[in-house]
Amino acid sequence: MVGGKVALFVGRRKPAGSVRQKPTALFVGRFQPLHKGHLFALRHIAKQSARVYIVIGSSQEKKTEKNPFSAQQRLAMMRAVLVKEKLAKKCKVYLLSDIPNDYEWVSYLDAHVPRYDVCYSNNALVLKLMRRAGKKVARVPLLARAKYRGEKIRERMKERKEWKSRVPKVVQEKIGARKKSG
Ligand code: NAD
After folding, report:
1. How many domains does the structure of the chain reveal?
2. Does the structure show a pLDDT above 70 at 14?
3. Which residue of 10, 77, 107, 108 sits 20 to 30 Å from the alpha carbon of 126, by its own alpha carbon?
4. Is 86 part of any domain?
5. Structural domain for 160, as ranges
6. Parallel, antiparallel, or unpaired: how do β-strands 136-138 and 24-29 relate?
């Protein structure tokens, strides 16, 4: 004990700067609907990251061909998945509407989401805009893209073909509940 203070660390300490914190990640998507490909990507991102900010984009959209589910429905799907995956503490979800000017999008997003170290996406426009704004980007690993693809799943729903096996069980339940309540 020196000067009445108790030493807080005993034993060998790592030199300053040697402790590598995992980064904070950003994952942007429309999740129309949230499918098993999104889940595969999310699990990968969560493993690499200390914290994940998930942005549900195009939040103003609903009941259209490309965006049938409302922001609240997509939020409910995402929350159910995060709870099921035990990721609710690590991940925080934000809703973000689109803006007319793509070149203002990254600063608009940054005004609504806390600071992040890396943006995960495979969307060419998102990657381009993020890179242009000087952000670090990483691609998400793809899972059987021909099968797990929002557009394909929406098509199958419309044509009344089997689609349930392509989304996580908890998402099936959320979509089922929506259909029952009209
Ligand atoms: P999405 O739900 O289609 O995809 C989200 C992510 O999941 C993508 O990176 C995609 O590659 C990945 N993914 C899809 N299938 C997968 C699979 N099988 N395996 C693994 N990963 C898979 O969402 P999106 O269209 O990429 O979302 C981008 C959002 O950003 C949109 O809401 C868009 O409007 C918004 N945006 C807005 C502006 C603007 O407002 N001006 C500009 C750029 C982007």
Report:
1. 1
2. no
3. 77
4. yes
5. 24-181
6. unpaired
